[in-house]
Design a protein that fits this description.
By secondary structure, the chain is α/β, with parallel strands linked by helices. The protein has one domain (33-343): Bacterial extracellular solute-binding protein, family 7 (D-Maltodextrin-Binding Protein, domain 2), CATH 3.40.190. Helix content is 49%, strand content 17%. The protein has 14 helices and 10 strands. α8 (194-203) links the parallel β5 and β6. The N and C termini lie far apart (85 Å).
């Protein structure tokens, strides 16, 4: 009996070890396996290292892989776009510093972080300026509006080459927010961005500046009770499992701004420069169209899962705009008042 018991024990321990190993392997499963290249990049003459903090299931991020594949094909394997999403190369502030130094060649920077590179890039975060998909397309496709924006970080050695998105901003909250009075009971997490800090102060709302990786635990523990973010991101990253309400403010488009180290770009042969820029422009334009569809799909999925969507009364939305006017004045000076007024007039704000 003792031998049988020992045998059973050994078998059980073995099974537990196998199961544990299987679970560990499952946990270590590569989250980017679906995006692996179907070619060997080791023979490339040039490599473009491109960073992003988010997951490529978001179309505005997945564009990095579509650029990679187009460039590889059109350059006949001479230029490899080494795209590194999911903060593999560090947080955005760290990557911005590496980008300036040339240790990283490009980044799809969130629009909230980009204002740390050049003040003018902050115009896209200002409430109710570039707030709809249509306005974003007009802004990008009108040279008089786009070019001053694209050139704004050149003094830091950084080119602004294009833009993709992750949908319109609103509030994901643990309690319904149907009015500004409701909003004043919420502690909102906002990004580490100077523009956002300024207009949340102007709105008179409680907020906590917090890095994105800290959000899940803060939301679960009640340190924060709301998120200033987009429905696409909140649904894909499962924030709606806790914050089951979304107020559609639509005050700005969440953007990924494609920044590139100019010194690195200038060293590329001219034909590869043209191939890279064309690929970025074509795929970015396509991705902006994809994002409209992804927004509709993610909102529908969230509603189907029980998330409730709200809008503020029109008078209260107008109140937010009125409260933002001092911020318009401050940031108008930072981005250039003539340019700020030109953008608002062209987009009929």
């Amino acid at each position: 009996m003792r031998k049988i018991s020992m045998y059973v024990l050994v078998v059980l321990v073995g099974l537990a070890t196998v199961c544990g190993s299987a679970l560990a392997a499952e946990k270590k499963k590569d989250p980017l396996a679906s995006w692996k290249a179907d070619f060997d990049p080791s023979g490339a003459q040039y490599t473009y290292i491109l960073s992003n903090i988010s997951h490529p299931v978001i179309d505005g991020v997945g564009v990095g892989y579509r650029i990679r594949d187009r460039v590889w094909k059109e350059s006949n394997g001479r230029l490899y776009v080494d795209f590194r999403p999911l903060a593999q190369l560090g947080g955005e502030k760290d990557v911005i510093n590496k980008l300036k130094l040339g240790a990283i060649h490009g980044m799809l920077s969130s629009s909230v972080a980009a204002a740390n590179v050049a003040d003018r890039l902050g115009i896209v975060n200002l409430p109710y300026v570039i707030d709809t998909f249509d306005k974003l397309d007009k802004f990008r496709n009108t040279p008089e509006l786009w070019q001053p924006f694209a050139n704004s970080a050149l003094s830091a050695g950084i080119m602004t080459v294009d833009v993709t998105g992750y949908g319109p901003y609103g509030w994901a909250t643990t309690a319904p927010v149907k009015t500004l009075a409701d909003a004043r009971s919420i502690n909102f997490r906002i990004a580490q961005a100077p523009v956002n800090i300024d207009f949340y102060k102007a709105w008179g709302l409680k907020f906590t500046v917090m890095p994105w990786p800290d959000v899940p635990q803060a939301l679960q523990t009640g340190v924060i009770t709301g998120l200033d973010h987009t429905a696409i991101v909140c649904n894909i990253t499962k924030k709606f499992t806790i914050a089951k309400n979304f107020t559609e403010l639509n005050y700005a488009q969440g953007l990924f701004i494609h920044l590139m180290n100019k010194r690195w770009f200038d060293k590329l042969p001219q034909d590869l420069q043209e191939i890279l820029m064309t690929a970025i422009n074509v795929e970015s334009a396509d991705t902006r169209a994809r994002t409209r569809k992804q927004y509709e799909d993610q909102v529908a999925k969230a509603k189907q899962a029980g998330v409730e969507f709200f809008t503020l009364p029109a008078a209260e939305l107008q109140q937010l705009i009125e409260l933002t006017k001092p911020v318009y004045a401050t940031w108008g000076e930072k981005v250039g008042m003539d340019y700020f007024n030109q953008v608002r007039s062209a987009l009929k704000n």
